[in-house]
Design goal:
Layout lengths: L2 H13 L2 H8 L3 H15 L4 E4 L2 E4 L1 H28 L5 E6 L1 H6 L1 H11 L4 E6 L2 H10 L4 E4 L9 E8 L1 E5 L8 H5 L3 E4 L4 H12 L7 E4 L2 H9 L4 E5 H9 L4 E2 L10 E7 L6 H14 L3
Parallel strand pairs: 3-4, 3-5, 8-9, 8-10
Antiparallel strand pairs: 1-2, 5-12, 6-12, 7-10, 7-11
Helix pairs in contact: 1-2, 1-3, 1-4, 2-3, 6-12
């Protein structure tokens, strides 16, 4: 048994998907499966049960999980503290962010951070809001960036800026009434994400029930599908601004149906403070507050 196996187990217990775990932590699906099988042999019990294509945590796995999470967090904090003690400029920093933040905002911060601290060991993961919160909470990540509301008793949530949202489609689609718009077709983000929660709340607040819905798990896929004329979609303006400039997309405006901006926030644990983490927070505030 080793810490890597425990980390893969903890992440898989969160995602319930070994492929997703591998994508987040940089392993292939077969490698994740092999490591977890070895951990099961070492522990003497089955951690997961597969029913069809769905993965479930067994009672034994649920019993083991809290202790495994604490061990992983303690080992990662120990590594970070040791590196910081030797040289505060060569320590390890782990950041996790959602797909929109990762694609359109974080590169500016990372580029400047790398320029200022070239010897820092910087690891960046992409994750849903629930995954981001979990990783910061259990110590797998030091800093998270989220675009959904987070309320957590043990985490600091620091709002940075609001991201404008818009309903967009190809210019060929131009609904004249709310009924036309509701009839779709619609392209929306997949369930189980903070972004999907925002979309569902938007529809509910406006008593708007879209018909003919197609779901996808990628902002880029939604944008390109909309540009191809396959339907309406609700996306951050920054994610579609270039397509609008190119004439591929336009904003659909219906009176009383204006999407609210989404608040983007930093999340972190105050008690786990070190130089590289504090410097990243300062840099993120400086760059992202102006968005």
């Amino acid at each position: 048994m080793d810490v890597q196996q425990l980390l893969l187990f903890c992440k898989t217990a969160e995602t319930l998907n070994m492929t997703r775990t591998g994508d987040i932590l940089g392993f292939s699906q077969p490698a994740v499966s092999k490591q977890i099988q070895q951990l099961e042999r070492d522990l003497g019990g089955q951690l997961f049960l597969r029913k069809g294509r769905q993965l479930h945590l067994t009672p034994f796995g649920a019993l083991i999980l809290p202790r495994a999470q604490r061990i992983v967090a303690q080992v990662q904090e120990l590594k970070s503290e040791a590196a910081q003690a030797i040289d505060p400029f060569r320590g390890r920093l782990v950041v996790v962010a959602g797909s929109v933040t990762m694609t359109y905002l974080l590169p500016k911060v990372l580029a400047e951070y790398r320029k200022q601290y070239p010897q820092a060991q910087l690891t960046v993961y992409s994750g849903k809001t629930t995954e981001t919160v979990r990783m910061v909470e259990d110590g797998s990540a030091h800093i998270g960036l989220v675009s959904s509301e987070v309320i957590h008793p043990r985490l600091t949530v620091e709002p940075l800026f609001f991201d404008a949202m818009a309903i967009v489609s190809s210019p060929e689609l131009n609904p004249h009434t709310l009924i036309d718009l509701a009839q779709g077709p619609w392209l929306i983000f997949a369930r189980g994400t903070g972004f999907r929660t925002y979309i569902d709340q938007f529809f509910a607040e406006h008593s708007f029930i879209p018909d003919n819905v197609m779901e996808m798990d990628s902002i880029e896929a939604l944008r390109e599908m909309a540009a191809a004329g396959l339907g309406y979609t609700l996306l951050p303006v920054r994610a579609v601004s270039q397509s609008m400039e190119q004439g591929k997309l336009h904003i659909i405006k219906q009176e009383g149906l204006e999407p609210e901006a989404r608040c983007n926030s930093l999340i972190y644990r105050k008690e786990n403070s070190f130089y590289l983490k504090e410097e990243f927070l300062l840099l993120a505030r400086k760059i992202l507050k102006n968005q």
